[in-house]
Specification:
Elements lengths: L1 E5 L3 H13 L3 E5 L2 H10 L4 E4 L8 H10 L6 E5 L4 H9 L4 E4 L4 H14 L7 E4 L2 E4 L4 E4 L2 E3 L3 H12 L7 H8 L8 H7 L2
Parallel strand pairs: 1-2, 1-3, 3-4, 4-5
Antiparallel strand pairs: 6-7, 7-8, 8-9
Helix pairs in contact: 2-3
């Protein structure tokens, strides 16, 4: 599953990214609303976590634009604003859930998985493709019933390919899907895993 995090606090954004990756998500990051909107509209996002107090385009405006463009994936607002009026506003513009800071990462992950289950985006605990079985909940891979040890990155590559089975995926598309930020991208790494 591919998650977008739009958060202007660098430390929190990186913490969120780490927690979501550990939970099995492929993560895209944006430090402001304008970049977040670009990613939200141009990339195959499955779920988004959006702060309200963003520079360039605030969280409410971002959610409105995403919904206006017909994107229907779940959006969770994550913010320090805890007045009930702000919660209602966020939900009325199209957010699916609202979590107030401070929070526990376990609660955030549980809410995201719950949103994905309700939208049928995370319905299977196991993915199968031919003789390969991926166990999403435990991040384990089996080939012909025998467990295969993979790194987290290898698991993400395999998961992406299985989720897109039957489709032609370019090296560029795979690279963009697996790497969160341009500065981290090294498409040559993909060639090591796929021959």
């Amino acid at each position: 599953m591919r998650a977008l995090i739009v958060e202007d606090d660098n430390n929190l954004r990186e913490q969120l990214a780490t927690e979501l990756r550990n939970a099995g998500f492929i993560v895209d990051l944006a430090p402001d609303g304008a970049e977040g909107l670009h990613i939200a509209l141009e990339y195959p996002i499955d779920i988004a976590v959006v702060d309200l107090g963003l520079p360039k385009l605030n969280g409410i405006e971002l959610v409105q634009e995403v919904r206006k463009k017909g994107k229907d994936y779940p959006i969770l607002i994550l913010t320090a604003r805890d007045r009930w009026q702000q919660k209602v506003e966020g939900l009325e513009v199209g957010a699916d859930d609202y979590l107030v800071k401070p929070y526990h990462f376990e609660e955030l992950i549980a809410r995201l998985k719950g949103l994905l289950r309700r939208t049928n985006r995370w319905t299977q605990s196991e993915l199968e493709c031919g003789a390969i079985t991926l166990n999403n909940s435990e991040q384990r891979v089996f080939l012909h019933g025998e467990e295969v040890t993979l790194t987290a990155f290898e698991y993400r590559v395999l998961e992406h390919l299985i989720l897109n089975a039957g489709k032609v995926i370019s090296k560029t598309q795979l690279t963009e899907s697996l790497y969160a930020e341009d500065s981290d991208r090294d498409s040559n790494v993909i060639e090591v895993f796929i021959r």
